[in-house]
Write a structure and sequence with these properties.
With 157 residues, the protein is an all-alpha fold. It is built from six helices and no strands. Helix 3 packs across helix 6 and helix 5 crosses helix 6. The longest helix is centred in the first third of the chain and has 25 residues. About 7% of the residues have low confidence.
């Protein structure tokens, strides 16, 4: 009986590993993202967008419409971890290490649009890469909406 359980466990573990490999390949996650993973997960300051990301420009013209569409994406995909107000206090985010970013914070709001776009695109565990899940336009819509979160927070203070 024990040998049968061990075989089943091996199949389950191999299945999980295969799923992770397929997801990583589908999202075009570079192998570099998996190097030194322990260090990356422990060092909250390690997630800095590369310099070229600051040169990426949001070319969406109708910012009000982009923000509205970005909010719709945020409400269905991001709230679970980042919370309804974007403060990193979502239900699923409470159990993550590191915790999700407070998108209303000065630390996030002081980053360029390109840096935020790059982070949404590439991800960093436990945050997934959204390159394969959202179009470029949808990722820029999210950036536009994230900017409104910072404005809402500054109005409260």
């Amino acid at each position: 009986m024990i040998k049968k359980i061990d075989v089943k466990v091996k199949y389950v573990l191999m299945s999980i590993l295969l799923i992770l490999v397929v997801v990583a390949a589908k999202n075009n996650t570079p192998a570099e993202n998996f190097k030194n993973m322990d260090k990356i997960l422990q060092d909250d300051n390690a997630w800095k967008a590369p310099e070229y990301a600051d040169k990426l420009v949001n070319r969406l013209k109708d910012l009000a419409e982009a923000s509205k569409k970005g909010k719709a994406i945020f409400d269905t995909q991001c709230v679970i971890c980042h919370g309804t107000e974007g403060k990193g206090d979502g239900v699923a985010g409470m159990g993550l290490t590191p915790r999700p970013a407070n998108l209303t914070s000065k630390k996030v709001q002081s980053q360029s649009d390109g840096a935020i776009y790059w982070k949404i695109t590439t991800g960093k565990p436990p945050m997934a890469s959204y390159k394969g899940a959202f179009s470029k336009e949808q990722r820029w819509q999210l950036v536009t909406y994230i900017r409104t979160l910072g404005k809402k927070e500054s109005k409260k203070n």
